[in-house]
Amino acid sequence: MDSFSSPSSGSSSQLSAQDFMGQLKTQLAQAYAEEFLETVRGKCFDKCITKPGSSLSGSESSCVSRCVDRYIEATGIISKALFSMQR
């Protein structure tokens, strides 16, 4: 049984609509965070790590840091624009 299924015994411990929406929002936020991290990881790795090894060079480390910062900033700008369009 997954977290959204009602018990098969017919008991009254079913999720309320509010609980269901809370769980759904949590799962969506987690999925978004995982997708965001995977995208950033892939894009920044491809851009910054030219010779993979057991550790990052100083230039690779600063490149990854700048890349992640720019991606987070761009995502914030896009989110603000989308939210302002909805209003």
UniProtKB/TrEMBL annotation:
Q: Which Gene3D superfamilies match?
A: Mitochondrial import inner membrane translocase subunit tim13 like domains (1.10.287.810)
Select a single GO molecular function from the record's annotations and give it.
Answer: metal ion binding
By its UniProt entry, which SUPFAM superfamilies does this protein fall under? Answer: Tim10-like (SSF144122)
Report the subcellular localization: Mitochondrion inner membrane; Mitochondrion intermembrane space
Q: What is known of its domains?
A: The twin CX3C motif contains 4 conserved Cys residues that form 2 disulfide bonds in the mitochondrial intermembrane space.
Annotated family:
Belongs to the small Tim family.
What is the name of this protein?
Answer: Mitochondrial import inner membrane translocase subunit
Please name the source species: Kalanchoe fedtschenkoi (Lavender scallops)
